[in-house]
UniProtKB/TrEMBL annotation, chain A:
Keyword Zinc-finger: yes
Gene Ontology terms: cellular component: cytosol; early endosome; endocytic vesicle; recycling endosome
Organism: Columbina picui
Protein name per its UniProtKB record: Rab5 GDP/GTP exchange factor
Signal peptide (residue range): none
Region described as Disordered: spans on this chain: 486-506
Pfam families named among the record's database cross-references: DUF5601, VPS9, zf-A20
Ranges for domain A20-type: 27-61
Record-annotated VPS9 domain positions: 247-390
Cellular localisation: Cytoplasm; Early endosome; Recycling endosome
GO biological process annotation, one example: protein transport
GO molecular function, one term: small GTPase binding
Automatic annotation (TrEMBL), chain B:
One GO term of the biological process aspect: Rab protein signal transduction
Pfam annotation, one family: Ras
InterPro entries, sorted: P-loop_NTPase, Rab21, Small_GTP-bd, Small_GTPase
Gene: Rab21
Chief location: other
PROSITE patterns in the record: RAB (PS51419), RAS (PS51421), RHO (PS51420)
A GO molecular function held by the record: GTP binding
Subcellular location: Cleavage furrow; Endoplasmic reticulum membrane
Family indicated by similarity: Belongs to the small GTPase superfamily. Rab family.
Keyword Protein transport: yes
Protein name per Swiss-Prot or TrEMBL: Ras-related protein Rab-21
Lineage: Eukaryota, Metazoa, Chordata, Craniata, Vertebrata
Region (Disordered), start-end ranges: 189-225
């Protein structure tokens, strides 16, 4: 419910921003609070000043609570009828159908008003009206969304109770009675409401065992279902209630975690190596789990998210260290995950679980252990100082104020918020510079080789010349003996001519 | 606080002959507390092919003279920087096992700090065990037996000597602790029988436990999840 509310108000803010940008000539009167109290208004507060906005918002909220209440009452009535007629199933079916029809018509009317809003927003006088409407608009849509889930949970609960026969009906009656009492106790402090819920858990558990003689293994199951049923309905009243400073604490933690963005896994001595793809995969999953916690309505479902997150952390440690994780490994890693994920409304969620979870699950058992560790992680983050990160006070202060970043000092360690792509890029850059270095070395060596070759040629030429100079080439006259055998025979021409072959006939 | 914890044990006893105890494990980084608890719950030591995912939360079921005991062992981060978080961990615990390394004088000093804190926060209701681990390294002993035992006695704790490596003294340690926790729980139960008005405020610690064995969500006899 709250998530969609935040989304909705976010959209609303965006719309306002747009219209603000469009109007270049802003009238002085437009900047003032729409109530005319003389103070400046703020688009984030629908054009009211903070004081008037609080009043308007409160009015809208009161109305919403009233509407929620009426809807809840109606649904409860329907449900009771449904349960009464659960033996004859046909009756129940037609009831569901009529409910469905009703929802459809609701959906239609909402669409119409939304469209109207868009058209009227252009004129200034209309805008005022539309915005007031807008402030109230979220309630029906959220009611519907929530009520669909509430309906589903109720049906499942009734189905579940059928397997318990007679005690099932008693359980249902007890739950109804509790929800009724709680509806009349909205004015009580949250701690008192928590006491009521805890009383209820204890009473029902006792009755299940002693009065209704439910077998023990079924008691735990039933308690889980009871918690789911009542807390789905109570959630919107008791999660981060206005009467507490839960929201303020949420914002403080969120701001604190943002300010600590520079904390590296090395500083926390986190025993996981995110260079291993499987490990970084586990880290991402753990972060997703812890963020998901805020989206659950039932305390036990929230606990399950913490447990899932813890299991992923154990896997990450196991892959890195190849041994089972101890608390010495687990807690720093959980702190790192919380710092990296900055889960929404951390304090509200912790408070809600503490106040409204079935105590048997929280006090002992695995879920309770992981929840305790999460509490420790948050406490550590809140009190974290230079000493707890093994840093000097000067360094810590410089990192906190953003004057320096640990990244620049240690090139190897990346700040936890650097995403994988950027990490890869840094690695590639590193690789490139290495390649560049090698390239230069090759070019230098090649040049040297060239020079060496030239020197060698020159050297050889010089040597050859030296040798040639030293031993000049003397070509001696031809050896006489080697001339024609008869060359020196002076009386050659005195010899008769050589005999010619002659042919004789005969 | 203490009231809730007392009720946890007492409530357990009242439901039948079955108890649920939370035991915290305290000790500096290298004293071998993980090995100790893995040896006890899984009978493994430095096993290369160990399949256990984690040793930070382990459970064990025992039967001591017909009384069923569900033991949940909570490991705590022993680093100095997490020291301030101790109270969050050991809130509502029935017992504490404080481990030191007999070859490391510092680790024994750390144990002394924890004892002081536990007594301050939880009073005398918590059963304390001081454990000198690594007796297989007797030759390198730096904490004298005499000193350790005298100290333990002075703070109302029991002293044990163990070796996770050689599997010595560990069964005895846990069995003894369980017996003492049962005793404390029964004393609480009797005390509560006198003034039933306490039950209203102490509800948060109450366990749903009956004569029949409980089905554990994690399953198995000494599951580690």
């Amino acid at each position: 419910v709250f998530l969609s509310l935040t989304l909705f108000s976010f959209n609303r803010k965006k719309m306002n921003l747009k219209s603000e940008r469009r109007g270049i000539h802003v009238d002085q009167s437009e900047l003032l609070c729409k109530k005319g109290c003389g103070y400046y208004g703020n688009p984030a507060w629908q054009g009211f000043c903070s004081k008037c906005w609080r009043e308007e918002y409160h009015k809208a909220r009161q109305k919403q609570i009233q509407e929620d209440w009426e809807l809840a009452e109606r649904l409860q009535r329907e449900e009771e009828e449904a349960y009464a007629s659960s033996q004859s199933t046909q009756g129940a079916q037609s009831l569901t159908f009529s409910k469905f029809e009703e929802k459809k018509t609701n959906e239609k009317t909402r669409k119409v008003t939304t469209v109207k809003k868009f058209f009227t927003a252009s004129s200034r006088t209309g805008a005022k009206k539309a915005e007031i409407q807008e402030a109230k608009a979220p309630s029906p849509s959220i009611n519907r969304q929530a009520s669909i889930e509430t309906d589903r949970v109720s049906k499942e609960f009734i189905e579940f109770l059928k397997t318990y026969q007679k005690p099932g009906q008693d359980i249902y009656k007890q739950c109804k009675l509790f929800l009724d009492t709680m509806n009349h106790k909205r004015d009580l402090s949250i701690e008192e409401q928590s006491e009521c819920a805890q009383d209820f858990y204890q009473n029902v558990a006792e009755k299940l065992q002693t009065r209704w003689k439910v077998p023990p293994e079924k008691v735990e199951k039933a308690m889980d279902q009871i918690e789911k049923y009542i807390m789905t309905r109570q959630y919107k009243y008791v999660f981060c209630p206005e009467t507490t400073d839960d929201e303020k604490k949420d914002l403080a933690v969120q701001k604190r975690i943002r300010a600590l963005h520079w904390v590296t896994p090395q500083m926390l001595c986190v025993p996981v190596n995110e260079e291993i793809p499987e490990v970084s995969d586990m880290v991402v999953k753990a972060i997703t789990d812890i963020i998901e916690m805020d989206s659950k309505r039932v305390p036990r479902d929230k606990l399950a998210c913490i447990t899932k997150c813890s299991k992923h952390i154990f896997n990450a440690i196991k892959i890195t260290k190849n041994e089972p994780a101890s608390a010495d490994d687990f807690l720093p890693t959980l702190i790192y995950i919380v710092l990296k994920g900055n889960p929404p409304r951390l304090q509200s969620n912790i408070q809600y679980i503490t106040r409204f979870c079935n105590p048997s699950r929280l006090m002992t058992g695995e879920d309770g252990y992981y929840f305790t560790n999460l509490c420790c992680a948050v406490a550590f983050i809140e009190k974290l100082d230079a000493q707890s990160l093994n840093l000097s006070q000067e360094d810590f202060d410089r990192f906190m104020t953003g004057q320096a970043s640990p990244k620049k000092q240690e090139s190897d360690s990346f700040s936890p918020d650097v995403c994988l792509g950027v990490k890869q890029m840094y690695k590639n850059l590193d690789l490139l510079s290495q390649l560049n270095e090698r390239q230069e070395r090759i070019v230098n060596e090649a040049k040297k080789l060239e020079k060496d070759l030239i020197d060698w040629t020159d050297g050889v030429t010089k040597e050859v010349q030296d040798i040639v100079e030293k031993y000049p080439l003397e070509i001696e006259p031809k050896n006489q003996a080697l001339a024609a055998i008869d060359s020196e025979n002076v009386e050659n021409d005195k010899l008769p001519p050589p005999l010619q072959p002659q042919v004789y006939a005969g | 606080g203490g009231g809730a914890r007392m009720a946890a044990a007492a409530g357990a006893a009242a439901g039948g002959r079955s108890f649920s105890f939370k035991v915290v494990l305290l000790g500096e980084g290298c004293v071998g507390k993980t090995s100790l608890v893995l040896r006890y719950c899984e009978n493994k030591f430095n096993d290369k092919h160990i399949t256990t995912l984690q040793a930070s939360f382990l459970t064990k079921k025992l039967n001591i003279g017909g009384k069923r005991v569900n033991l949940a062992i909570w490991d705590t981060a022993g680093q100095e920087r997490f020291h301030a978080l101790g109270p969050i961990y050991y809130r509502d615990s029935n017992g504490a096992i404080l481990v030191y390394d007999i070859t490391d004088e510092d680790s024994f000093q750390k144990v002394k700090n924890w004892v002081k804190e536990l007594r301050k926060m939880l009073g005398n209701e918590i059963c304390l065990c001081i454990v000198g681990n690594k007796i297989d390294l007797e030759k390198e002993r730096h904490v004298s037996v005499q000193e350790a035992e005298t100290y333990a006695e002075s703070v109302g704790a029991k002293h044990y000597h163990t070796s996770a490596k050689q599997n010595k003294g560990i069964e005895e340690l846990f069995l003894d602790l369980c017996k003492r926790m049962i005793e404390t729980a029964q004393v609480d139960e009797r005390a509560r029988g006198n003034g039933s008005s306490q039950s209203g405020t102490a509800r948060r610690g109450v366990q749903i436990i009956d004569d029949e064995p409980q089905v554990q969500s994690s399953g198995g006899c000494c599951s580690s999840g």
